[in-house]
Amino acid sequence: MSDMSDWLSVTRGDAPLLLSIPHSGTDLREVESRFVSPWLARKDADWWIGDLYSFATALGATIVRTTVSRSVIDVNRDPSGISLYPGMATTELCPSTTFDGEPLYRDATPLSTAEIDDRRARYFDPYHAALREELARLRQLHARVVIYDCHSIRSRIPRLFESELPQFNLGSNSGQSCDPALSIAAQGACASSGYSHVLNGRFKGGYITRHYGRPQDGVHALQMELACRGYIEEPIGAVSSDNWPTPYDAEFAAPLRSVLHTVLSRCIEFAQSPQA
C-alpha cells in the first residue's frame, strides 16, 4: 500500500523494518528562484537512493520518503538547532551552504526565523509524523522494529572529513540507538563483502537515528551512509554541473546492492529473533 502527497510518500509493508529516505529529494519547491543555481541546490542530494533500495519492498519493508531537497529543509537535523557533530562542519535545518561551503542563496541575508518555522511546519513536521505513525503501526505487529536511515555522500569532501570515506558507514549513535546485536549483524554483512566499512566513524547517525532509536522501547535505529563510488561512477576531483550527478546504472550498482540486501535481511532477522 502506498499513500502519496505531492512530496511525501509512504509505502507500507508488514516486516519489522522501516526505511527512512530523507535526502534523495530534488524538489526545490517555491525556493528555487532564490538559490544561486538549481544544480548547486541539488548537488548534495543522496543521489539514486530510491533506486538502490527499491528491492526493500519485496522484503516487506515500509518506506518513508520525501521528494523535497535537503537544501529547502533537512528533515534529518535537530530542529532545535543543536549540532549533531559539535566542533565539526555540518549543515543546518535550512542549509545556507553546500557541503563544500559554497553559499546556496543569492541573497546573503540569513533566512528569517519565521521562514524556517514555516518550512518546518510544511515539510519537517509531516515527515516525522509519518515516521511516528509507521513506527507505531509496526510496533503493534512486532515486539521489535528496526528503523534504518538511508544515506549516501560523495567519497571525498575535505570540508567534512579527511581522505576517502569508507564504503559503508554505519551509525548507532555510539551504541545508544540500537541493541549491539543489530549493529554487529549489519557490520558483519559489510565486513564479509570485502568493501571498506566502519561503525560510528565520521557519521554516527543523524537526528532520525538519535531521536527514534529507543532500544528499551523496542525501536532500534541504525544509519547507513554509503560512499557514492560503490554504486555510481564518481568523478575524480571536483564536481560540476557537467559531471555530477552521474546516471544510475543498475549493473554497476548490483554488487553493492547485494550487500545491502544482506544488511536489510539481517535487520529483519534481528527484529524477529527471540529477545534475551
Describe this structure in words.
- One of its GO terms (molecular function) is hydrolase activity.
- Keywords: Hydrolase.
- This is N-formylglutamate amidohydrolase.
- It comes from Hydrocarboniphaga effusa AP103.
- With 276 residues, the protein is an alpha/beta fold.
- It has one domain (2-272): 3-Layer(aba) Sandwich (Aminopeptidase).
- Helix content is 29%, strand content 15%.
- It has helices at residues 38-42, 49-52, 113-141, 180-191, 207-212, 250-272; strands spanning 2-4, 8-11, 17-21, 62-66, 145-153, 168-171, 197-199, 219-227.
- The protein has an eight-stranded mixed beta sheet, sandwiched between helices.
- Helix 4 (180-191) links the parallel strand 6 (168-171) and strand 7 (197-199).
- Helix 4 (180-191) packs antiparallel against helix 6.
- The radius of gyration is 18 Å and the shape is globular.
Summarize the structure.
By secondary structure, the protein is α/β, with parallel strands linked by helices. It has 6 helices and 8 strands. Strand 1 and strand 2 (8-11) form a beta hairpin.
Q: Could you tell me the CATH topology label.
A: Aminopeptidase
Helix content: 25-40%
Overall CATH architecture? 3-Layer(aba) Sandwich
Radius of gyration: 18 Å
| End-to-end separation | 33 Å
CATH homology superfamily: Zn-dependent exopeptidases
Strand line-up across the major sheet: 1-2-4-3-5-8-6-7
How many helices? 6
Mean pLDDT: 95
Number of strands: 8
Annotation keywords:
Aminopeptidase, 276 residues, hydrolase, 8-stranded mixed sheet
